[in-house]
Specification:
Elements (H helix, E strand, L loop, with lengths): L1 E8 L5 H16 L4 E8 L6 E8 L2 H8 L2 H11 L7 E6 L7
Length: 99
């Protein structure tokens, strides 16, 4: 399994636009083959900074999504709202600690 984390800083006044884009696409992203989980997080100290946290079956599944029309359209609408370059990480889970 691959964990994908994308940190995005938005221009002041553009977070509502981003939330509308996310709301319109989140169910289709979650239903995309290979997507196992999708969350949207917001930084408590920087309210214009959001992070998507997703789980993918494999690097290939993520790459299929990144080549899709869904990703291209969503990313094109989102990237014009950025205040800074986004940062993305692909990771694998090594260990999960229980409660």
């Amino acid at each position: 399994m691959l964990v994908r984390i994308v940190r995005m800083a938005f221009q002041e006044g553009k977070t509502d636009d981003f939330r509308a884009i996310f709301d319109a696409s989140k169910q289709r992203i979650r239903a995309f083959p290979g997507c196992l989980h999708l969350e949207l997080l917001r930084d408590l100290d920087q309210p214009t900074v959001y992070v998507t946290y997703s789980h993918w079956e494999s690097p290939e599944a993520l790459e299929q999504y990144r080549r899709s029309d869904l990703f291209r359209a969503t990313w094109a609408a989102t990237k014009v709202l950025f205040a800074d370059r986004p940062t993305a990480f692909s990771m694998e889970t090594i260990e999960t600690a229980g409660h």
